[in-house]
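User:
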Amino acid sequence: MLRNEKYAGTYIWGDVRVEGGMPAIITKGDFAMAQAAKPKKRRASEVWGEFPLSGKAICGGCGMNLVGTSGHGRHGVKYEYYKCAKGCGLKPVRADWLEPAIVQALRELLSNREEALRVASIIAEHAKDDDAEKKIERAKRRKAEAERGMDRLMDAIANGLELERAKGKIDELQTQAEVAEAEIRVQENAAVFNAEDFADFLQFGATLDDAALLKAFVWQVMVGDEDVTVTLNYDVGDSEPARIGLKRVRADLPLPLGNSSTPESPADSGVRADSSWWAVRGSNPGPWD
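Assistant: Predicted structure:
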């Protein structure tokens, strides 16, 4: 951070440098020391992975976010896992089990054309947008009012009103009518739901890499000691989101030192003893059922 010359009072714009051109917040000496200090490089073996479910995974016990944590076990094995930020007692979940398990379930769901069409058909039944219809009605009223205003002005012109005096108002009303007509077309097009197109979108998701797939389709991951509920980014009816249910599979493997709970075994990655997706108000078994 202290390597920016602006902190020492040097104004820089392109190739122009002006010493003292702006207020300094550190001394020249401190800046020189910061320049001389070499940044420490992390060993390649200590470069940890990212946690794509950060901000999406929450604790099923207390509702707090799960945070990604890394460390080494007793035998020098590197672990990456999610644990409750509050430390409420939820058993940490191995990242290399949770992430692949969700990805596997998503790919099974999205790659099946029949299943994708079934999901799209359910959504199509509930795709009617009442809000869009209200917007269309309001736009139609605005258009009608603008057209009536233009008709009144044209009548006034016919009765002797000078055209130049009315031209500005006519242009304004015509613009209002055109804007309203454009909004009507937009809302009418938005109200049309094509099940085949949405099924294509779902199946395209199966071709994404793991991180992009999780980002595109996962809204929330509720992790409990026994179960994981994945809420997806689309509804399947009555504004109820699609969900995937997973069973946690655990083995007695050590966590990094200082942690007593036991995460999932790498050997169990992707194993789902209870795999299903459903809407809260109805049962929607997946293609594996």
